[in-house]
Amino acid sequence: MTRDMTALVVFTDVRGFTKWAEANEVFANLDHFVTGFLQILRQRFPQPRYELKPLGDGALVVSELPEQLKVREVTSLLSDVLTTSIQESLRVVVANFVTRRTSSRVFAGTSLKS
Q1: Contact status, residue 110 vs residue 41, Cβ threshold 8 Å
Q2: Strand, helix or coil at 65?
Q3: Number of other CB atoms surrounding residue 10 within 10 Å
Q4: 9, exposed or middle or buried, with CB in 10 Å at 0-12, 13-18, 19+?
Q5: Exposed, middle or buried by CB within 10 Å (0-12, 13-18, 19+), for 59?
Q6: 30-44 and 87-98 are packed helices; what angle lies between their axes, rounded to 10 degrees?
Q7: DSSP 3-state assignment of 54?
Q8: How many CB atoms lie within 10 A of CB 56?
Q9: pTM (2 decimals)?
């Protein structure tokens, strides 16, 4: 059964992941990296408030919202989500990953596109 709802929907993606993952030594340890990335998202977007669906090198995050939010509440919610920084947590995952690989260039960063 389907129903209408008001929801916050966020798509995440590891920038430059596809090209980066082409190196053989990266591929051998890919699961370790993706697991770390998803743990960061689960910490930032915890259940039951958020549902997280992994999508390879990214994820879909959904949170059902009350139907009658005031403009001030929507602004506050969007500000909280859009200013979330996972940069430091991601650097730790990348640093751990770097010790597991040999020669591939590793790039980690976050960006927001509207």
Answers
A1: no
A2: strand
A3: 16
A4: exposed
A5: buried
A6: 160
A7: strand
A8: 12
A9: 0.66
Q: What is the pLDDT of residues 27-43, one digit of tens each?
A: 676 777 788 888 888 98
Closest CA to 91 of 30, 27, 14, 18: 14
Rounded Cα distance, 106 and 83, in Å: 24
Q: State how far the Cα of 48 lies from the Cα of 19, in Å rounded to an integer.
A: 34
Task: Look at residues 44, 53, 49, 58 and name the one whose alpha carbon lies nearest to residue 15.
Answer: 58
Instruction: Tell me if 20 sits within 8 A of 107, measured CB to CB.
Output: yes
74: Cβ contacts below 8 Å, ≥ 6 apart: none
46-78 pLDDT, tens per residue? 899 899 999 877 889 999 888 888 889 988 888
DSSP, collapsed to helix, strand or coil, labels residue 53 as: strand
Give me 101's structure tokens.
């690989």
The DSSP code for 78 is H
